[in-house]
Amino acid sequence: MQPLAGLNVLDLTWHVAGPYATKLMADYGANVLKIERPGGDPARRYGPFPNDVPHQERSGTFLHLNTNKRSITLNLQTARGQDLFNELATDADVIVESFAPRVLPSMGLDYQALSRINPRMIMCSLSNFGQTGPYRDWKATDFTLHAIGGQTVSTGVAENQPLKGTDHLMEYQAGSMAALAVMGAVLHQHWEGVGQQLDVAIYEVVQTSADRRMTALLGYEYNGKPSTRAPMLPTALPLGYFPCKDGHACMVVAPPARWTRFMGLIGREDLIDDPRFQSPEVWASPEIKEEIDGMFYPWLLDRTKQQVMEEAQAARIATTAISNPLEVLNDPHFRARNFFRRAGHPEAGTLPYAGPSFSIEGGGWELRSTAPLLGQHNREVYTGRLGLSSLELSQLRAEEVI
Amino acid sequence: MSRLPLSRIRVLDLTLIWAGPYAVMQLADLGAEIIRVESCQHHITNTRGFVPAPTKEIVESLGYLAGMYVDMDPGERPWNRFGFFNSLGRNKLSMTTDMTRPEGLETVLELVKVCDVFIENNSLGLMKRFGLDYETVRRINPAIVYVTMPLHGLDGPYADYIGFGPNGEAMSGILSLRGYEGEDVTTAGQGNHMDAVSGIVAAYATMMALYQRDRTGRGQFVEVSQVEHLVNQIGGPLMDAAMNGRVQAPTENRDPVRAPQGTYRCQGEDRWIAISVGTDEEWAGLCRVIGRSELADDVSYAGNLARRRRHDEIDALITGWTSTQDARAAMGLLQQHGVPAGMVADDRDALEDPQLAQRGFFHEMRQADCGTHRYPGHSYQASETPLRFDLPPPLLGEHNDYVYRELLGRDAAEIRRLTELGHIGDRYVPGIR
pTM of the prediction? Predict the structure, then answer.
């Protein structure tokens, strides 16, 4: 049995953050019903598409984010649509939504209203800035949230403009956090029988990010030293990205490896005990850095990034070849772990899908089905779960409710 | 207030640096009792400091992260004054024991019996060398949820490879998608996205395993493969590689679809604003704000495609306006006109931010060795079970008494003996690095 088998999730999210949250549930067995507006999740138009030909069932971003879900269409702007949603909500364990904060209340579908129908239900609202506060209705994208959340200012180099992160990572991170918040509430629901409302703001997820952000915030509060685009540790011991024969490698020479292992790696055992090089104060000196770089770079440029990784790892120095997505798809490690799973989709054909982020008892994650076609489960849900007749179903279609 | 979701859960915490302690912090916020196992004999770098007891001079020479001591002063007990550790330390208890000696290992195994979760993010194989692998731990407590966070997973050619956040970004492909136009990766800047999201997903997985334990009545083993989770976060570029064999390149600050998008210089030193326009409506708003309303009606700027062709020219127009503006004021004005804009905020900006203030984001708290400070708060809010923020970051060994006396029931003589042997203590032994 998958860990979340039996958990009923109504998914009112689109684009990246919300769908990633519900993917993390669906991939581990939750019964996720994706409720799409007529026209579908905008991620269906996002691409990439095979041969760059747009098609609502072939968007790579959508296909990746919506595995193991079912899809129905429903127009929540209509009174009938709202009634149908209320019916679906009666036995939902979890509702995840990513509307702008004023939208659901304007349709009478806010937590207060829905919890009267289903008091043990959990409603997770995922938004840019949260359900309250002066920025509540502000517009934002992954790019602007990375900036106002405090990440951009310390990304890149001081000599150049501040740099965005890899696209969508803040959304993915917020989606992970929403899944976490829901799981805590699910345990509470399971043990205490009560539901609640969760308010996840991407802005606050960025501000509390462990990757420097929250740490730097406290550091500033402690001593007034601000986040910068300077290297994290300006030292002669490698910490960063270095050129190799065919690309770059990332190397972090950290204790306890330090000097001994580093000199061993580049074949300068003779310098291991040299008193000139023995302390952090010395490694911080620009002259010493230049001297050491003079030995290090020729060694690097003599090797491929894969060789650099293998030799340095053999010396227990944290070193990794920098890969692009195509290299990731073909990497021997992921192949050996059977990480990418090839699966067929009626419109998009057979593609490799990223595998589990984690496993429980060696499993838990399954690719039961690829992403749903738009409205693929309308009949099953409306006639099956809600007991409508085929005639009523076609009326809903005619009235553009679904 | 009703009890917190994890108030019945006790966690044995053997994590280090960022990702593991961040995961544990999430569980702590939700009410779990955290027993953090530390040691006076073994200092783990970048956890309670780069080195255990740096001098003031070393602190000055370290960067903004490694050198973040209160008032730049390492003080009498530097390990309690380190912002890196303390930013993740709330709601946790700290005890000390030296696991490399038999009495220390015995103490940890005794703790295993009274805990629900065992969590660690050390390099692969270290727990086995200590005698704390899953098989051993499960024999002692069959109901345990054992969480391990191997960088590359438990098997495969790179299983034994070591690495930190930047290594994970390199391996996953994420790093290859960030950078300046026309420059190689060496200027892409350091990133540690992995530490954050590994912490989040590990806490998620831990709770999922607790749920599964409750439903099956059996303990659970959780493997969080940190790099594989990262790979999941570049779905689009991976699919492009799979579908079209295409390797996407970094786009500096531009967007593949929306235009214009960039960071634009504002008044003041290193002050910038991020603006992203994706519709003609947003474009019209931007034109009004920068005093060029006539461009909103000019068809040669209609649509993202047209604006992308004139991106350099548009960037110059925007900078002409932003460079005379205060970043926060410009952000407010642009938002009034419906333009997605965010100042490139720094630490001070967050501490002065009205949104965070109104949401009660910062929590003032006193820790004995640091004094009173504002701590960044929670990532989300929960209506029925508000997340806790009631214990300051623990001093090294602060809760030894609770752990040894109350949890483990050791008597005074035994506690004296373990103190003399150096297991119980509140400072690192001198001379270790």
Answer: 0.97
